[in-house]
Amino acid sequence: MQKKDYIIQLLKYIIMAIVVGIIVGTIDALFGRVLIAISEFRTIHYQYLLPFLPIAGLVITAMYYVFSKLSLKGMKLIFEVGQQKTDAIPLLLIPLVMIGTWLTHLFGGSAGREGVAVQIGATLSHALGRKLNFPENGRIMLVIGMAAGFGGLFQTPLSATFFAIEVIVIGKMDYEALLPALASAYIAAFTSHSLGLEKFSVAIKNTINLTGTKTIISVIILGILFGLTGRLFSFSLSKLKVFMGETIMNQYLRIGVMAIPLAALLFIIHGSRYSGLGTNIISAGFAGQTIYSYDWLLKLLFTIFTLAIGFQGGEVTPLFSIGTSLGVILGGLLGLPPMLCAALGYAAVFGSATNTLIAPIMIGLEVFGGADMVLFVIVCVIAYGVNGNISIYAQEKI
């Protein structure tokens, strides 16, 4: 391709990125603000809502079967399009995944939200690309949409950009999409913030110097344990989804029956502490409030079970919760500042589970500031290495 043609094509993608960023940022604001309101309502009235979690599961499944069964593939469908295995993402996926996730959270399922935002962004950008005849590289349009979805919801455009270009294919950075993805992520973040969606950020006051042997060893241990935790989450989620699908093939039966013990346990154990996103645990970790030694493990197990039986939502915010609570506990055991370790866990467990490296480092920068960037780089690199190419997004491939 000649330089002139390349510049023209790049400008076209940037224009599309701006359009996608505005639209996806607007949808993210709606989705995020409703989800916050739902979560606050459930926290107050969980004893009346959790018993109906199995019924909510049946309603979610029925919605997909009636309106767009193909959309049940969710993120799998996005990766299939990115790998050119298929070229169809139904626009109905957008309202279905939004409503399905709202219902999951309203009735107390343990799930995240980023998968929803990424699916919304990718679906919309893919549809616009096809409508406006962007045949040159459909994957770039997907990356633009994924970055916008993540960036608009979390308002971390740098991490959103690298998340999108790292995660679409394992072991390969799609640098061709870097500039348009960055533009869409920033526009989406600005749009959603302008519409009232707030960014989560924490100022870390305590830090450590990597001068003593004991401190260096402790930081290495953190990276290893965070990496193993992300690997455990990804491996267990993948295996349990397969097991549930093969053991209870009827999806109505699977979600309706298995949600009964899920709801009961969520109700009994600390009164819905492990329902929803896990932002309550994140807030507790950074506010110096009570964090139980088993918080990270129970949040991990409840989230895996919720998603494996068919409820809608994402994994990233629960991963932030798991990393935060584990970091607080490990900080106390290793003699390191618990809040700093919580921040490192927040980023590194996410990076390990998603098999991304630069994205979690950028999360550290955008959420916690740049004062401890060296620590974030070291811990995230170790966690990434320990992961061994296992990802929550099983459809990625080299």
UniProtKB/TrEMBL annotation:
The chain crosses the membrane at residues 12-36, 48-67, 88-107, 140-165, 177-195, 215-234, 255-276, 296-314, 361-386. One of its GO terms (molecular function) is chloride transmembrane transporter activity. It is a multi-pass membrane protein. Its main location: membrane. InterPro entries: Cl-channel_core, ClC, ClC-type_chloride_channel. It is found in: Membrane. One of its GO terms (cellular component) is membrane. Keywords: Membrane, Transmembrane, Transmembrane helix. This is Chloride channel protein. It comes from Anaerostipes hadrus.
